[in-house]
Write a structure and sequence with these properties.
Layout: E1 14-19, H1 26-32, E2 37-41, H2 51-62, E3 68-72, H3 78-87, E4 93-98, H4 104-113, E5 119-123, H5 126-130, H6 132-136, E6 145-146, H7 148-155, H8 161-177, E7 184-185, H9 193-205, E8 210-213, H10 219-225, H11 230-245, H12 254-270
Parallel strand pairs: 1-2, 1-8, 2-3, 3-4, 4-5, 5-6, 7-8
Length: about 270
């Protein structure tokens, strides 16, 4: 079950994070990846001493036919300013993932610096979570992302579904209130296909529709996990068909059920189902 055309980033299931260090061959990784979106990481993956060279190399690649998202450093850092100053002139920039977002003004400044470029703010701290509703509603935001590793380091929470349930739920509700599509969950762990599907299932239970991936081997299991199954598609199509045959939705729970069905069918269509 593979897509036959590029996936709209608003519906992308897998976001492959690739190191932007000067010596890494991310061009080949992007070209050979089955991920719905590729992100070149200029933040955590690049030591401060290499950031200038990393930025210059990335901009050269993006300006000569390459295309990818870029994770940039948090607003307020010197590296944020250096990155946006270079990236604003780069044709191949698909969008930016804004690290450690803690206030709507940080997104607004990025949107002003990179006009027309979609932004995925990463919620990676308690401070960011307390302002997630305002962040989600800031013009320029495409989707929200959850940086679970940094969030757990900031809060001291363990890596369990129960411990992270409040953060997951709040991010989902904030995104829905702002009219955004499902959020992107923190980086997948390991390479076991069953474990990866379980991680995706936990994210989906809380309303997330995508995950960041750190290895190409994680992509296929995650894509499958976030793709509606044949049974789900059949059930959704039947619900929509029945509603149309009855000349419109009824009352009670009918309308919410139909909205969910239509969203599921839109996702399935985007993924080539």
């Amino acid at each position: 079950m593979t897509a036959t055309r590029p996936i709209d980033p608003a519906l992308a299931r897998t976001w492959l994070m690739l190191s932007g260090r000067p010596g890494r061959d991310y061009a080949s990784a992007v070209a050979g990846s089955a991920a719905d979106a590729a992100v070149i990481d200029l933040e955590d993956a690049v030591p401060p001493s290499e950031k200038e060279a990393a930025r210059a190399r990335l901009v050269a690649w993006l300006s000569s036919g390459g295309r990818a998202w870029v994770r940039i450093d948090a607003r307020g850092t010197e590296h944020w300013a250096a990155s946006v100053n270079l990236l604003r002139r780069t044709a191949g920039l698909a969008g930016v993932v804004l690290a450690k977002t803690e206030a709507p003004g940080e997104v607004a400044d990025t949107a002003i610096a990179l006009p027309g470029v979609p932004i995925v703010p990463l919620i990676e701290s308690a401070r960011g979570l307390t302002r997630v509703e305002q962040i989600a509603a800031t013009p320029g935001v495409l989707r929200l992302g959850f940086g679970t590793g940094d969030f757990r380091r900031d809060t001291g929470l363990p890596d369990t579904a129960t411990a992270l349930a409040y953060a997951h739920g709040r991010i989902t509700v904030a995104g829905a209130a702002a009219g955004l599509t499902g959020a992107i969950d923190g980086g997948a762990v390991g390479e076991d296909a069953t474990a990866l599907r379980e991680q995706a299932a936990v994210a989906a239970t809380h309303g997330f529709t995508a995950k960041f991936a750190l290895r190409e081997s994680q992509i296929a299991p995650l894509n499958l996990a976030f793709t509606p199954s044949a049974d789900e598609v059949e059930e959704a199509a039947a619900a929509v068909a029945a509603s149309e045959a009855a000349a419109g939705p009824g009352g009670g729970d009918d309308l919410p059920r139909l909205l969910i069905a239509r969203r599921l069918l839109a996702r399935a269509h985007a993924y080539g189902h």
